[in-house]
Write a structure and sequence with these properties.
By secondary structure, this protein is mainly α. The protein has eleven helices and no strands. Helix 4 runs antiparallel to helix 7 and helix 10 runs antiparallel to helix 11. About 25% of the residues are buried.
Length: about 200
């Protein structure tokens, strides 16, 4: 599942011990990516301003967050700079801060590539998936078992992201247990997630 990250040196097994399951790991990767610009800017600013106290706090936070998503080498370098700044070892801070920020940027680029690849599908567009999910919600609200199964099966050609698969699988489970209202709610939630992705791509 995470072979692409493993090939790039991510310790995904360790990351999963921190995050608990694949879906939560993907969310952690997304948060780590989204926080990069803000956090790297702060580290650079605190370094430039010689604000060692806040610099230390930021690299300490980066150390923990990097390890949570499996970037052990980035975490190790952040730890090195945490201790150096605590000891007021400015030679080490001066030598490695640019390297840290460069490594941080590279790791985030690798995460973004992985997350983008999770969105690739097998030919079915997001718009088509939303249409089917919305139709499925309506059919489920009318308690139409056979029609709901036919519509659900149309979604099998789409490669849902890891963070969406639990909802996708849950829809089928609810249908098979004749829990139509619950299945409809999951279909609506999944539809909203994909609509949000479409909106974000348009921005």
């Amino acid at each position: 599942m995470f072979e692409e990250l493993q090939e790039k040196g991510f310790d995904t097994e360790q990351a999963l011990t921190y995050t608990g399951d694949p879906g939560k790991y993907v969310k952690a990767l997304t948060r780590f990516k989204d926080a990069h610009e803000k956090n790297s800017g702060k580290i650079q600013r605190f370094y430039d301003e010689k604000d060692i106290e806040n610099y230390t706090l930021l690299v300490h936070s980066l150390k923990s967050n990097a390890r949570m998503v499996g970037c052990m080498d980035l975490g190790a370098l952040a730890e090195k700079l945490q201790y150096a700044s605590q000891d007021n070892d400015m030679d080490t801070v001066d030598e490695f801060t640019d390297i840290l920020l460069s490594m941080y940027k590279d790791k985030v680029a690798e995460i973004k590539e992985f997350l983008d690849n999770q969105e690739e599908d097998t030919g079915m567009s997001k718009e088509s998936v939303v249409k089917i999910l919305d139709e499925l919600s309506g059919v489920l609200e009318d308690y139409e078992y056979n029609e709901s199964i036919l519509l659900f099966n149309k979604l099998s050609d789409y490669n849902f992201k890891i963070s969406e698969k639990s909802l996708y699988n849950g829809i089928k489970e609810e249908i098979e247990e004749f829990q139509y209202d619950e299945a409809a709610e999951k279909a609506k939630e999944l539809s909203e997630k994909i609509k949000k992705e479409l909106e974000e791509k348009e921005e």
